[in-house]
Amino acid sequence: MDSGGRAQKISTGTTIMAVEFAGGVIVGSDSRVSAGESVVNRFFNKLERLHDRIYCALSGSAADAQAIADTVHYQLELHSLNMDEKPLVLAAATLVRNISYKYKEELSAHLMVAGWDPKRGGQVYGTMGGMLTRQPFAIGGSGSTFIYGYVDSAYKPGMTREECHHFTKNAIALAMSRDGSSGGVIYLATITEAGVKEEVVLGDELPQFYDK
Question: Is 14 a catalytic residue?
Fold first, then answer.
């Protein structure tokens, strides 16, 4: 409740990011969830599994983003059973885009979709505003406004898996140090043909940056 007794929307004021590399993608997020000026969850995992090798990163209203992710997960499971094959990353991103745009007046959420499939390999898709765009890397959430300069200068085409991992971790850590709505720990998922490797970068392991 706010000072006037009104319920405040739970928001994932956040930093999310995904990067393609040869053979897969890395997707990451911070873990802070807020309601107004209050932090209501310090360790919320904003990386949601949509299918075996397809994930999305959540931002906006936590409830709205989770509802979209749950709906897409259900539809992809049905698709996989009916077609007897795993869904494409593009199919998942299209579902997210369609639901987000259809209910844009009712829902306040932005989902970034990333994953691997045999047809196109590692892929990252943005779904903002009814658009569906594949990008070599993407950032989103309130913390992204603080790191556009960093990612534009640090990203290089053809980076290795290790370089993309370092790039993602550094970018999210920088955003967390400057954005009051981002914080906690960093969740990372590396998605390749071999499967998904999930990890957590704890507070004492975060990259440190200092203004000179």
Answer: yes
